[in-house]
Amino acid sequence: MKANISRWCRDHGSNFASQIFDRSADAFDDFLQSSLFTEKLRKEGEAIQKLLSRPSTMTMNELLKSFSMQELEKDLHAAAPTLWGFLPVSPHAKVQEALEGAKNWYVFTAICTMLSLVRSQRANNFQTIMGLFLLGSGASKREISVLAAAGLSVSPSTVNDHVKQLSQENLEIVQGVIKRFLCSLAWDNLNFAFQV
Whole-angstrom Cα distance, residue 101 to residue 109? Predict the structure, then answer.
């Protein structure tokens, strides 16, 4: 009996629940406020936070090399399938129409990253990349501040700190290359002197 109920729920449960929710708004509200649903969303929020938090050992160069909007979209979809599926469901038809299209996942990705920032200020990989992009694109300090207040970027002072960190990392890379190839540079200069 239990197996038959489980099989029926797996095959027809979603359709049955949809029929109930269509006929009773209170049932849908109760489901959304149930501990089962809120716990699932909380766990997905934690997964998004973990996904968008970088380890303390990660350098800015590594963050820039590893960041990809397409990969972030796939990772967010895998980490939070309920939230991902829940976002396009809207009672407002105009919002639904506005979100449809080939690039609607950009919107979902931005929303998920903003939600992760609410959970933890350290879950800011997307905002860090966006801040560096805005600075590199010539955006003014005021524009970056507005987007930081909206949760889409980090503050201008944080962007400057990241640029300094990136400069220091690249300086160390260049110094390491010069130290490794110092003999080559000296030989090249000597070789040049012999040809004169």
Answer: 14
Q: Which class for 52: exposed (0-12), middle (13-18), buried (19 or more C-beta within 10 A)?
A: buried
How far apart are alpha carbons 22 and 173 in whole angstroms? 61
Q: Are 44 and 116 in contact (CB under 8 A)?
A: no
Dihedral angle, C-alpha 53, 57, 61, 66, nearest 10 °: -50
Quickly list DSSP for the chain. Answer: -HHHHHHHHHHHHHHHHHHHHHH-HHHHHHHHTSHHHHHHHHHHHHHHHHHHPPPTT--HHHHHHH--HHHHHHHHHHH-HHHHHHTT--S-HHHHHHH-STTHHHHHHHHHHHHHHHH-TT--HHHHHHHHHHHHTT--HHHHHHHHHHTSS--HHHHHHHHHHHHHHHHHHHHHHHHHTHHHHHHHHHHHHHH-
User: In terms of Cα–Cα distance, which of 104, 125, 100 is closest to 48?
Assistant: 125
8 Å CB contact between 6 and 77: no
Q: Under a CB-based contact definition with an 8 Å cutoff, are residues 113 and 147 in contact? A: no
Instruction: Note the pLDDT tens digit of each residue in 56-84.
Output: 888 899 988 988 888 888 888 888 888 77
pLDDT in tens, 11-30: 766 776 667 767 777 766 67
The identity of residue 143, as a single letter, is E
pLDDT at position 168: 94
